[in-house]
């Protein structure tokens, strides 16, 4: 099974994840968030051609994961994220082929992975970065 990621880069991912796991007591959700962040940073810094595929709206292997990792990085800055905010974020980042359906799906996947928490208030649904308290 080929991931499309060069073996050298995969080795760097694995080394970074092992070091983090040995030096911190990570929950499965924490490890998932860490893995997505490591992949996003490594891709952004080492492969501009790979990254450019997203800015033009083309999807290829790993595209959804990269987009969600970038979105999660933005959500981690704080705030209450609604679907419309995600669509606006797509547009600001040149992801013009993504709309409300993709935003809902991305938020649901990040929620299901434990990376973000869904909040429902009267007539409003929003998401925030998950905290350790949320996983208890």
Would you give an account of this structure?
By secondary structure, the chain is mainly α. Helices cover 62% and strands 9% of the residues. Helix 1 runs antiparallel to helix 2, helix 2 packs across helix 4 and helix 5 (83-92) crosses helix 6.
Q: What overall geometry do the principal axes of the alpha carbons give?
A: flat
* Biggest pleated sheet: 2 strands, antiparallel
Element order: H for helix, E for strand: HHHHHHEEH
Report the uncertain regions.
45-62
User: In percent, how much strand structure appears in the residues?
Assistant: 5-15%
**What number is the mean pLDDT?**
74
Strand arrangement across the biggest beta sheet: 1-2
Number of strands: 2
* Span between termini: 36 Å
Structural class: mainly alpha
| CA-based gyration radius | 16 Å
Portion of residues in helices? Answer: 55-70%
Q: How large is the count of helical segments? A: 7
Index terms:
mainly alpha, 2 strands, 7 helices, 136 residues
């Amino acid at each position: 099974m080929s991931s499309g990621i060069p073996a050298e880069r995969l080795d760097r991912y694995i080394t970074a994840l092992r070091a983090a796991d040995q030096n911190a007591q990570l929950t499965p959700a924490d490890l998932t968030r860490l893995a997505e962040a490591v992949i996003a940073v490594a891709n952004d810094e080492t492969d501009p051609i790979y990254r450019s595929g997203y800015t033009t709206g083309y999807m290829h292997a790993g595209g959804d994961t990269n987009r969600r990792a970038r979105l999660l990085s933005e959500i981690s800055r704080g705030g209450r994220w609604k679907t419309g905010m995600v669509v606006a974020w797509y547009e600001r980042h040149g992801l013009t082929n993504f709309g409300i359906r993709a935003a809902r799906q991305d938020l649901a996947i990040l929620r299901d992975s434990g990376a973000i928490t869904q909040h429902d208030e009267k007539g409003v649904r929003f998401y925030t970065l998950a905290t350790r308290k949320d996983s208890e």
